[in-house]
Predict the structure.
Amino acid sequence: MSKKAEVITDWTFVFPNDANPYGAMFGGKVLAIMDTIAAIAAIRYSGRTVSTAAVEAVEFKLPIVVGDRIQTCAKVVWTGRTSMIVKVDVYRDRRAEEAPTHCTSAHFTMVAFDDDRRPTGVPPLLVETDEEKTDQQLAELIHQQAVTRRKKSDEGRA
Ligand SMILES: CC(C)(COP(=O)(O)OP(=O)(O)OC[C@H]1O[C@@H](n2cnc3c(N)ncnc32)[C@H](O)[C@@H]1OP(=O)(O)O)[C@@H](O)C(=O)NCCC(=O)NCCS
């Protein structure tokens, strides 16, 4: 039976040890936060342990600096047989009177595992709203690109 995905939201603070000497947060630290919430979204959706198989096209559009609050939102937007694509959005929050500003997005492909750490089936995603349909279409494109890339990479090694 198909299943609705929930949005997972988290907040954190940017401390000096998260940033370079000029105060800008390291991209790797942002990715670690994104990867964690993507895993939580995938675990909540599938009810399984998961592992990150791929991260697609991360663009750091705006800097996040020491003292910013970071809001991270994650949602499963596409499902295959054993894999799920989780869209993660990151916002910085500086001033209480302004809405958080979108800084970064990325799609994480997470694979669900059975108890023997073999890829296992996930419930098909229930897609209802226009936004969910658009997100699913983009994720399908990302999946197809990953399939093509893997095939070419395997051929290159053969
Ligand atoms: C991800 C992993 C489980 C895939 O194992 P595998 O033997 O290739 O398994 P499969 O070929 O059956 O692929 C399983 C699913 O993952 C997807 N997948 C595997 N590699 C992928 C990639 N590079 N990009 C996108 N999807 C990928 C497949 O499309 C398949 O999805 P589907 O069942 O929905 O069609 C395996 O490569 C692995 O354990 N990698 C290390 C993961 C890890 O440690 N991550 C943390 C970073 S250190």
